[in-house]
């Protein structure tokens, strides 16, 4: 039987390093919110002929059009986010684009006011906080001990915080913005992180009751019994997400990247963080069997 917990301080050190890097980036670089949160205009259109991103950027600058982000994967389909743009301002801009590059086909245009963005941000924070609290009490009831729930929640928050840090770094170097799809990815990460942790904690409880041995032996036994299944389950998800990152469209790419990072973090934390945390909580609070 592999003694996973003999390396618990290595796991804690890895997590601490990732948390410090995430905190540093979130403090200094911050996140780059999309118009979903700040308000503004979203414009998606397609050219009939290929136009490079550099040429379109130069055109916008010459025209005097201030935009926040310009995205394209193929040189034909473009997505532009900008400060609020009225129809009366968009129409002459569209005519100027067509005069320069040829006809475009508009797929989507919408404008969100700043009040809508603030309301969405409030709802997002409320959703994350309420989900965390509900999961804590559900796990405390399901596992018959509040500290089991606390261990799972700490692992879950660890994953979510590092995911935010990763996207803060991506925003600094690649200009990646967070939107409502990113919120969906964060909430999915919360649930995925807890899923494997509950399976392992259940196995720990069963082994403690069955053998009456020490908690450290029960945790090692549970990890040896569940780790292969956890890794296999995660790999099936990771392979699918990798395929979407490589072959999927640009509009969902960073959403898929967020899911991929969250899946990897959830697999790591449920096995190598949540269980050592349970052991340390046991030492501090004398966890009941």
UniProtKB/TrEMBL annotation:
Any one of the GO BP annotations: intracellular protein transport
GO molecular function: protein-transporting ATPase activity
Transmembrane segments: 9-27, 120-139, 146-169, 181-201, 231-248, 254-279
GO (cellular component) term, any one: plasma membrane
Pfam families named among the record's database cross-references: SecD_SecF_C (PF02355)
Domain called Protein export membrane protein SecD/SecF C-terminal: residue spans: 99-282
Subcellular localization(s) per the UniProt record: Cell membrane
Membrane topology annotation: Multi-pass membrane protein
The UniProt record lists the keyword Hydrolase: no
Domain of life, source organism: Bacteria
Protein's UniProt name: Protein translocase subunit SecF
Organism: bacterium (Candidatus Gribaldobacteria) CG23_combo_of_CG06-09_8_20_14_all_37_87_8
